[in-house]
Amino acid sequence: MFMICGIYSRLGISMWVCLVCFIFCLASVSYFVIKNKSYWFLLLLVAFLLGFGVADKSATKTFVEMAGGDVPITASGIVTNAEKTKNGYWKCDVFGTVTENENKAIHENQKLLAIIKSDTPFKMGDCVIISGDALSFSYADIYGGYDEWLYLTADGYTAKIFPDTWEKTGHGKFWGMGIKNANEAVQSLLEKILPEKESGIAKAMLTGERADIEKETDDLYTKAGVTHILCISGLHMSLFALYLSYILQDLCKCSKRITALVTMVVCVAFLIFSGLKPSAMRAVIMICVTSLGYVVYRRHDWLNSLALAGIVILLIQPLYLFQAGFQLSFVSVLGIDIATQVLPKPKTWYEKMINLAGVSCFAVGFGLPIVAYHFYEVSLVGILANMVVLPLSGILLGCIVLSVIGGFLFLPLGVFLAGTVYFILQLFEMVCHLVIQIPYGIVTIGRMSLWSMAAYYLLWYGLCFYRTVWKYRLMVFGSTLILLYGMLGNRLIWKENTIAFLDVGQGDCTVITTYDKKAFVIDGGGKYGKPFGENVGMTVLAPYIASQGITDVEAFFLTHLDADHSTGILELLAEGKGKALYVSDYPVVDTEAEKQRKEIVEKNGVSVYTMHKGNDCMMQSLGVLRCMYPIKDFYFDENSENARSLVLQYVYGDTSVLLTGDIEAMQEVALAKQDLHSDILKVAHHGSHTSSTQIFLEAVSAECGIISCGRNNLYNHPHTEVMERLENQNMDIYRTDISKSIVIKIDPNGGYTIHTAAERKPYYETIKRTMEKT
Questions:
Q1: Quick one: which of 222, 262, 213, 258 has its CA closest to 240?
Q2: C-alpha angle with apex 581: 513 to 506, nearest 5 degrees?
Q3: Cα-flanking dihedrals φ and ψ of residue 128, to 5°?
Q4: Tag placement on the chain: N or C end, fewer CB within 10 Å?
Q5: How many CB atoms lie under 10 A from the CB of residue 534?
Q6: What span, in angstroms and rounded, lies between the C-alpha atoms of 384 and 712?
Q7: pLDDT classification of 637: cutoffs 50, 70, 90
Q8: Which residues contact residue 19 at a Cβ distance below 8 angstroms, ignoring those fewer than 6 apart?
Q9: Positions of E strands within 620-668
Q10: Which alpha helices (DSSP H) does 211-301 contain, by range?
Q11: pTM score, two decimals?
């Protein structure tokens, strides 16, 4: 716990949590020293400092981060891993030497993630020279989501690169190449003895390779709460050790010491073979501690084994602390252990079934806040699914191993043995399909706050070990109160609404969420070249809405049909996430985009409404969403999609926000004749010089301007002259290419606060910068 506090104090972004960590360490040490009258307990602070130190080392900036932008480089090295993506690109890990093209600085032992478009295949051991811009990793957005920096930095990557040129110079070897070749050989064999879908699952369970798991399968297992099957988890390692111990001790009649030693060696070898996943590392360390107890005739302490596993893993890579897999692995095991202490010992088969359900409930219950924090929804039916999946997963893993062994000896034998694997996986799929049909089996909670998570675990502890004394009563009452406040505080007391300008690259996407959990989307963004169904609607917009604890969108407002505004909305409509679409009253040209919109609307039963000036959308919790444009009988260029743009003014409390789509100068002049005064202006057309005229800006007279544009975009948005005009209006300017997603909380009693994703930096670094300035 002291080490975790040290790591969070260096890398955590919450000032309050950092303060709690610091106070906890000081208070605990003081308590132990005073109670036991021994200064040896001061050594606990060494664990805090150790955690802070290893975290500080992991946060060391790379040469790309030091440069503050893209760095032109030439790299020479060896390909340590290569796989072809579904889009036809080669994703290669290149380890070697990097030379910066401008200042000729040389960086040794760098690991690059190279995304190469090539018809020529790449394989492990290829020596290559690549040139292009080295790019820094993106961070998680303000609502969470995938944190590229966290996961790739933890895996040892320095930068990513889309090479402009590449050249193969030969073939070489590297440490661990034999292990990776063996891993690939097993994967290749599984592809031969099993169908594509089933081989993808088997490869994930045995080799740790998840790239070939079909999206439908991944979604199904996630909804059913059994996604732990699709990776090398602690469960698999424990079952592997259990089978091995049974074979050695019961079948081969080996002594406990020999069995323990062999189990340790084989488990470590399997861990290295499967890729050193954090959850598997936790299980192997605990297995080794237990086995070591048999070797030296000592009983192991379960809690200390778990703590030792955590210390070792975090010493290797402290960034694992912030990853969902690490957190779920440890809290689930903690839940299982508490279940063994609280639940009565089963005797009959009926009691054993009830006990299994109880243990599953504890494991799922302890993991619930972690799942909600990272993935926003939880599967309550996971308890039922795991009653079938958990007992059979050990048999499944054993059958996969036997199939591989048989396949290497004689391929038809491997195919025959794989029949059992196929049957069990079909059973798993059937169970998953059944349980997700249960009403309210999957609940969208949204991202839990850290305080709510802490209260949740305190409540579990208080209920599990409840005693009729005042401190337990206070614990249960206090934690319940904090949980209720986190769930209902804004709905019943504060009633703040939120308007978010999401970072969708070169496009527009705005989401209004109300205090009673309703969402209204104005444009959905869209990136050119990204396939439909994998664009920003599914990767940015849908996760943000889910993070707010919202399942469906109350209404979509599509300003116009340009792909950088419409794609995300069409993706969500195609997924059935909303039933109302509002569009401009102006007639549209019969384009491919309009045909796609009509097809999706008709297929999903979406009601379409047209809007013009004078149409308002009003709700008590929403406020007013007022249409300012199009204006009836106003001339517009029929060949310009931008001229059709909806212009909406959102008013809640005393705060007003003007949302302008991609209108241009002619439309701005017409709008300037109205009362446009707004506190916040979403700058038209991404800051293009065709918009944001002086007369329009003066009519709006906003305090704050939001520009939604992509980093290093082809249009050079926002244009210099627009930025000058905005600055002359004394506006505070926020840009999504710099600040990333921008979230504004609006108080119904007046006033608003602005938060950006870019400001979410470790609190220690904020203190450090402040001290350096003073």
A1: 262
A2: 70
A3: -135, 160
A4: C
A5: 14
A6: 50
A7: low
A8: none
A9: 623-629, 647-652, 655-659
A10: 215-223, 234-245, 256-274, 278-295
A11: 0.89
